[in-house]
Amino acid sequence: MKTALVTGVTGQDGYYLSQLLIEKGYRVIGLIRRNSRYDIQNFVADIGNNNFTIEIGDLTDLSSIINILKKYDISEFYNLAAQSHVGISFTNPISSTDINAMGVVNCLEAIRIVNEDIKFYQASSSELYGDTEEEFQNEQTPFRPRSPYGCSKLFSFAITKNYREAYDMFASNGILFNHESPRRSINFVTRKVTSTFAKINAGTLDRLEIGNLNAKRDWGYAKDYVEMMWRILNHNTPDDFVIATGEVYTVKHMIELAAKYFDYEIEWDGEGVDEIGFDSKTNKKLVVVNPDYFRPAEVEYLRGDFSKAKKILNWEPTTSFKQLIEIMCDHDKKLFS
After folding, report:
1. In sequence order, what are the residues at sequence separation of 6 or more whose Cβ sits closer than 8 angstroms to the Cβ of residue 173?
2. CA–CA separation, 122 vs 162, rounded Å?
3. What is the pTM of this model?
4. For the chain, where are the E strands, in sequence order?
5. Nearest residue to 227 via CA among 162, 315, 323, 142
6. In the predicted model, what is the mean pLDDT of residues 295-306?
7. Average model confidence (pLDDT) across the chain
8. Is the pLDDT confidence value at 241 over 90?
9. Among residues 129, 312, 309, which one has the least CA distance to residue 218?
């Protein structure tokens, strides 16, 4: 039985990846911080398998990672831990960089010290591309990050590649474009939209306050994407791969899909920060723009080209954007009704 170490295990990707690995016959060691406020007992019960174990560790502490690697016979190391909210990285750039950049160095250095045969996956991000000038972004597209988060992820991408080349380690990057699910935190825009409309439908909220309505993103389903993570580490050579859908939608379109699920028909009026969305059936104002939700430096457009992953790893997404929003709305309708 293979043993995999998964950091960031209580996050969206950590949950789905742990389930996938257990289904494939792995033993999974999930790493959490000592001061984590997450309900670990319920999380473990939700995973529901004896081949899942929680360990306490800290990516900013090299010795704690070394100790975990010495305790277990780890064959695959998936680093999903990060301060992953772009907006928060502007208000907390130092801690974001410490976790997202130096934490990755500690993971790689621990592998180098304990066992260089451990395969390492680094969760990279489409925010690397930032202010891109290309219609599609692939593995050769220049990086132009526009946030402390994106900059920290650029370092983690580069240091992973550096350890691969310097020490002949199996160290790979998955450049994940936006990927969502019912397990996404509510402070991310997709989950904020679906949960808010569920609350409007339940009568507990009046409207959605949102930032940039015209930002365009390539959104996929997290359950599809964790399959790709596993394929990356089980390829015969280490490499870097874009994980995306190749399709792009605006935040405004995503709002329209979520609203329609709850039987609202959004029409728009006004421009810029004065734009509002109202229900054409009742004329009720449901969406307003709040300038506080704009980033100091906006990324307007991201669209991934996953052709390399499709050709080499035989991977492609299976869930459409509309299906994804319906999955999330269905979950939030039950949760907030």
Report:
1. 121, 122, 124, 157, 160, 161, 240, 241
2. 12
3. 0.94
4. 3-7, 27-32, 52-56, 76-79, 119-125, 171-176, 179-180, 208-210, 216-217, 220-221, 240-243, 249-250, 266-269, 276-279, 285-289
5. 315
6. 88
7. 93
8. yes
9. 129
